[in-house]
Amino acid sequence: MKQYLAIDIGASSGRHIVGRAEGGKIVTQEVYRFPNGARQENGHLVWDTAALLSSVKAGIAAAFAACGKIDSIAIDTWGVDYVLMRGEEEVLPCYAYRDGRTEQAIAAVHEIVPFAKLYERTGIQFQPFNTVYQLYADKCAGRLEGVTDFLMIPAWLTYKLTGVKAHEYTNATTTGLVNAETRAFDKEICAALGLPEHLFGETVQPGAAAGRLLPEVAAKVGGEAEVVFCASHDTASAVLAAPVEEGEPYISSGTWSLLGIEQSAAHTDAESRANNFSNEGAPGGRFRYQKNIMGLWMLQSARKELGMGFAEAEEAARACPCKALVDCNDEIFLAPASMCAAVREKAGAKLSKAEVLACIYRSLADCYRRALAEMGGKAGARFSALHIIGGGSKDGFLNELTARAAGVSVIAGPTEATAIGNLLAQFLAGGEIGGIYEGRELVKRSFPLQTFEA
């Protein structure tokens, strides 16, 4: 029986999960977990890439120790960040996406390539940390001089394990430099911005083989294994595990949420640009046409401020008849000194603690309703079901409210979607399943899903 190792790394932690297909189901076992996080260095926010690589190798060793053999390994991480190399040496520091160094680069990039043109060619929404702005900041700082390679973080980790350099498609699209029509790096944009052409090679699809562990790595971790490319952008892996039917929408729900549908072609029109939709890569050269919307951040912040646990806050909100609503996408809620004060200000009322929580819950459900209607209008569809995956899928009260507000059936789960999607890409590469939808049927049989009716 084949065993696969999913290495799923987020901005605050990483974990190694071994999975296998057994009895028509996916069986998983977490074998290692480690902290991750950007740190301040000389006034900048940077990643400790050496520590990250060390943790990846330690987790692989733990997997071999726990399971005896591992047939393949794949790595997913957050998007947009990367490592530059001069030969075999990394160009340090490796900046984190929340570092403020792109401020001047953004205006300079848009002066050369107006954002309307960038969007028309790539379909990627504006975010100040998009790779295109980071790379231009590097160019202006002279950091690209003599650089031989540019690798997104999961691609760099894969290279350090195998010696193979490649650009995986789903994560490459987060750069804002991949042409939405050709699915390859846009040479015209790169040239206009003065970014070296040799840094942008061909992209590979999830499921492609990278190679076997280097002998010195295999000796260190205690075993040999194939390394493959999964959908290495973590959101792409999560959506791969969403048990959706063709054309059904999903919300990848966490601190921040993404609402989207899978499409065979990108929407790069002016309306999509104005509404801040993005077209990020999905396996098979497809796209996730999606929009960033408010997630659990408002609830998390209010609970922390009120000193309340999850169950206590949900119970208080359920019992409260408050019908006040606020616009969850208002910028006031991004980083307020007091979330409760911000909610009261926008609601225009002196709300009690319970009323603040009830207002947030109902406002989130209304936010999802409006975003779903906007998505349906753009896709020319009326949705009857909405899949909610990720950690936020465990919030039963919010699922109930969303179902009622949007008039759809909400199917919640799986919660550990990213690691499961990583494993599914390996199952495809290993011949365990014949396609994406077969993998999603496997997810339905393997993990508890809960339905909330309108």
Automatic annotation (TrEMBL):
Signal peptide: none annotated. GO terms for biological process: glycerol metabolic process; rhamnose catabolic process. Transmembrane segments: none annotated. Gene3D superfamilies: 3.30.420.40. One of its GO terms (cellular component) is cytosol. It holds the Pfam family FGGY_N. Residues 4-240 form the Carbohydrate kinase FGGY N-terminal domain. Keywords: ATP-binding, Disulfide bond, Kinase, Nucleotide-binding, Rhamnose metabolism, Transferase. One of its GO terms (molecular function) is ATP binding. InterPro entries: ATPase_NBD, FGGY_C, FGGY_N, Rhamnulokinase. Residues 250-429 form the Carbohydrate kinase FGGY C-terminal domain. Belongs to the FGGY kinase family. This is Rhamnulokinase. The lineage of its organism: Bacteria, Bacillati, Bacillota, Clostridia, Christensenellales.
